[in-house]
């Protein structure tokens, strides 16, 4: 296993740590930022989520720069992204910070695209993430981060940046999913 793939696996390993921080009642209380308060668990969870998400860029950059792109990496990288974002989104619903219907749309798209990737792999093709998929991923990362931080620092400006970012993420999720299926619709004609 090369370094980029190890970084991807490390991203997957950060998911249980994120969930433990978010859900185990450590009794850390809240931190005051100006006139607003954010639970310390959410702040620490946001830091873990942002660090884990940033490894997506790092592993991809290293793989391309050092010619270490592998089929394992093409499979694991989007899987790690989907697991991380799904865990964070479900947590946000649990804490009442994100509407469940928006999260269902995002997670449903991820399942559907994963299923399509499995069909493509059955035919011997491993599909790397395309630009729309990368934009979708980063839109989701921005939205989740803003929601975990309870809209800080935009709360002071009375701008619902967290919800705007979530809407952008949902739109890119739908568009990128549609694009992925449209470009790979031939796989359904070839599957038995």
From TrEMBL:
The record's annotation in Gene3D superfamilies points to:
1.20.120.1760
Q: Which cellular component, as a GO term, is one annotated location?
A: plasma membrane
Identify the pathway. Lipid metabolism; Phospholipid metabolism; phosphatidylglycerol biosynthesis; phosphatidylglycerol from CDP-diacylglycerol: step 1/2
Q: Top-level EC class, please? A: transferase
Which GO BP terms sit in this record?
A: phosphatidylglycerol biosynthetic process
Gene coding for it:
pgsA
Membrane topology per the record?
Answer: Multi-pass membrane protein
Q: Name one Pfam family in it.
A: CDP-OH_P_transf
Annotated GO molecular function terms are:
CDP-diacylglycerol-glycerol-3-phosphate 3-phosphatidyltransferase activity
EC number(s) from the headed UniProt entry: 2.7.8.5
Major subcellular site: membrane
UniProt entry keywords in alphabetical sequence = Cell membrane, Lipid biosynthesis, Lipid metabolism, Membrane, Phospholipid biosynthesis, Phospholipid metabolism, Transferase, Transmembrane, Transmembrane helix
Extract the coiled-coil ranges from the record. none
Q: Where are the transmembrane segments?
A: 6-28, 40-58, 83-107, 164-182
Among NCBIfam families, the record links this protein to: pgsA
Which residue positions does the secretion signal occupy? none
Q: Where in the cell is it found?
A: Cell membrane
What top-level branch of life does the organism fall under?
A: Bacteria
Reaction catalysed by this enzyme: a CDP-1,2-diacyl-sn-glycerol + sn-glycerol 3-phosphate = a 1,2-diacyl-sn-glycero-3-phospho-(1'-sn-glycero-3'-phosphate) + CMP + H(+)
- Record-given protein name: CDP-diacylglycerol--glycerol-3-phosphate 3-phosphatidyltransferase
Organism the protein comes from: Bacillus timonensis
What function is annotated for this protein? This protein catalyzes the committed step to the synthesis of the acidic phospholipids.
Q: Which family does it belong to?
A: Belongs to the CDP-alcohol phosphatidyltransferase class-I family.
């Amino acid at each position: 296993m090369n370094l980029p793939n190890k970084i991807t696996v490390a991203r997957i390993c950060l998911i249980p740590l994120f969930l433990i921080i978010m859900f185990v009642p450590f009794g850390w209380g809240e931190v005051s930022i100006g006139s607003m308060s954010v639970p310390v668990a959410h702040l620490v969870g946001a830091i873990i989520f942002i660090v884990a998400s940033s490894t997506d860029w790092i592993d991809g950059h290293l793989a391309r720069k050092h010619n270490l792109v592998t089929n394992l990496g093409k499979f694991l990288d989007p899987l790690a992204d989907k697991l991380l974002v799904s865990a964070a989104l479900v947590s946000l619903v649990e804490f009442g910070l994100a509407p469940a219907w928006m999260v269902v749309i995002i997670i449903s798209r991820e399942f559907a695209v994963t299923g399509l990737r499995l069909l493509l792999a059955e035919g011997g093709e491993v599909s790397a993430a395309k630009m729309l998929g990368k934009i979708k991923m980063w839109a989701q990362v921005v939205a989740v981060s803003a929601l975990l931080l309870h809209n800080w620092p935009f709360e002071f400006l009375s701008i619902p940046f967290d919800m705007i970012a979530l809407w952008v993420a949902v739109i890119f999720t739908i568009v990128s999913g549609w694009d992925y299926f449209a470009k790979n619709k031939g796989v359904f004609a070839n599957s038995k």
